[in-house]
Amino acid sequence: MSTALSSEVPVFAELDPLDPGQAADPHVLLAKARRDHPVFFMSRYGWYVVTRLDDITRIANDPETFSNRMFVTVPDVPERFRDRLPNGFPMKVQLAAADPPAHGRLKRYMQAALSPRIIAAHADRIRQIAHDLVDAMLLSPERQANLATAYADRIPMMAIAALLDAPIDDYDRYRLWVDASLELITTNPSPERLEILAETLLDFDSFIRKLIHDRRDHPGEDAISKMLAAGGPDDALSEEEVLGLVSSMLLGGTDTTGTAIGNMVWSLLTHRSQWEAVRADRGLLAMAFEESVRFRDPGRGPIRLVTRDTQIGGISIPKGALVQLCTMAADHDETVFDRADAFDIFRKDLKISPAWGRGIHMCVGRILAHLEGEIALDTLLDRIPDLQLVGDGGRVYSPQLMMPTLRSLHVRW
């Protein structure tokens, strides 16, 4: 990849996604970047960063110039695992890393699996999951819990298990799979570490393949059955593609939504009048979730590969460069949102947060994430209406280049 810079390209060295302090509160520096360097080069990681929504929208709507194929890169399987993983790691096919026309084909199958009807049919199951998790929290004699790990992180993981008609009680196993997958594609693991990850992901590969074989023989109302049924005789998904789409569901719909739920609760509890407003009027649930996703985006934004020399915001970007569409910055774009740094569930200038993406790669799981977030909040308002933060909540995020995942949020009641 080319990283040669002309003198016109600003370098913003202060911003570091892997700084734990910035993971918890990135917006002071992102606002400075948006104001002074709306397009800049992050020399530490070797890519350009775009911070304003207009520029991000233009990029998202031009997949020919800004390819998605570098968004997910998967290393080769270690040699001693190649007989058991002959086709590579299970996330080799990723919806988020596909360009047209392959992207349109894969998205059609994912939409069949995550149709509004399928999602609505699982709402009662997701609601029961939320109530069961609250029951477990309320057993605490200290009347305290880490909401991130005890509740927010578990709801989307268990909800996707329900959509797959897989055992929801295997949360710890699924958590291992997601952690291993994210480590594989977001870090550069040593050969020794790669072997450990391969062992974990072999379990994932075997488990999902068994589900696929079962659904071919005994189709049901689950997500895999709907993927398989959506194909015609000349355009059926291969087993590797189904495996990749299930991996996409887990990677794209667990940590992001879990962090969004935790961020929503933190935002509402630090703006108590708005917590009470939603408690009094559940018609505000959807806007509470949407505004919280804008206010504290669970992701930083995707990476695109530039396929030809171009310009963004007056800055020349060479062919071969990597560009991050920093939706986390665009969420607070002052040219789009009034009082952009304020959390306000009553704002009139928000329909769909930049966090969900734009163009053909707008999040296909948005309806599911909304349902999970709204149920999570609705359940807490019913069951623990006097919920409070312990101190300031003690938020801790695991710093990641793409997705700072919430690991700690302490609450009491």
Give an account of the 3D structure:
The protein has 413 residues and is of the alpha+beta class. Helix content is 47%, strand content 9%. The radius of gyration is 21 Å and the shape is globular. The mean pLDDT is 93.
Describe this structure in a few short sentences.
By secondary structure, the chain is an alpha+beta fold. It has 17 helices and twelve strands. It is globular.
**Mean pLDDT, rounded to whole units?**
93
Structural class label? alpha+beta
Number of helices: 17
Helical content band = 40-55%
Beta strands, count = 12
| Pattern of helices and strands | HHEEHEHHHEHHHHHHHHHEEEEHHEEEE
Distance between the termini: 52 Å
Sum up the overall morphology in one term.
Answer: globular
**Which stretches of 5+ consecutive residues score pLDDT under 50?**
none
Beta-strand fraction estimate = 5-15%
Largest sheet: 5 strands, mixed
Regarding quaternary structure, what we see is: single chain
* Strand order in the sheet with the most strands: 1-2-8-5-3
Using the CA coordinates, give the radius of gyration.
Answer: 21 Å
